[in-house]
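Z., the sequence and structure:
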Amino acid sequence: MAVIVAALVQAAGSTPAGQALGLSVAVPDAYKSLVEKAGNTCPEINPNLLAALLKTESEFNPRASSPVGALGIAQFMPATWEDEGVDGNGDHKKDIWDPEDAIPSAGSYLCNIAKDVKGVPGDRQSNILAGYNAGPPAVIKYGGVPPYKETQSYVKAINAMANVPVSGGGGTANDQQIATAINAADDQIGLPYSWGGGDANGPSTGSCCSPNGSSGGSIIGFDCSGLMLYAYAKAGIFLPRTAAEQYAASEPIKREQIQVGDLVFYGSTPENIHHVGIYVGGGQMIEAPRPGVNVRYSSIDSMPDLYSAGRPIPSKKTEI
């Protein structure tokens, strides 16, 4: 397989991502100036943080709505909107569905949260994000990020995306980087799965324990995200450690737009991504599937909850 990867990549091509405002998060053109302005509302936030929040909340969908009633591109609850919404475009209306109001409101609300949680110990950015998700009173009550699984996953995912170094050359991975990454993953075919195993240097023993109780502590190999981290590190692209963080650090791609070298993610929401593989064409991916199953080629439909694909974004980082 490795000897034909370069040809596959050349045939498939790659689509460059627009790098907006020096961000590592790709922002749709329609919202770039709004994110830049709102992301500078106060010193405690920045455009990249706001972009990461909007991507996680709604994937920049201004008509998004959640099962619990959150609405719009910034996913405000109506009661919160009444208190925190602003007339961003000066048309004398506060429209939760209008990005020209909702994005400035998100920036303003983050700044208000920053004031509310100023005296709370711990990482300030994490506390601000937790306040957006769970409310400032919860952050104050627990003295930091509350022990809610949803909030903890939310904070981790946004931090991972917001803290990715800005791309040095602009755009996403080029053809040579993609070929290098796929060849690196292909070289690991047959290696054991190890929960928590693998890093930028190659296979390693893992840790305990997977959701079914399996430990990788005595197994040298890779788990799903460890394999992706290693493969792209060989190409000079440094990804975060977990599948959810890797999703957050990639440009989202619709299924019909998946190209060779894209990462394919499985789960129900951005915060609950639980598996990742690298697409090699023909509906196939290379993956480290699960405990007891070695690194292999699989159909991207081998799991029922394919969520999205993502195109890794090169960074200036030179070491893990």
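Residues 1-22, 165-170, 316-320 have pLDDT under 50 and may be disordered. The longest helix spans residues 99-116.

Let me know what you think.
H.
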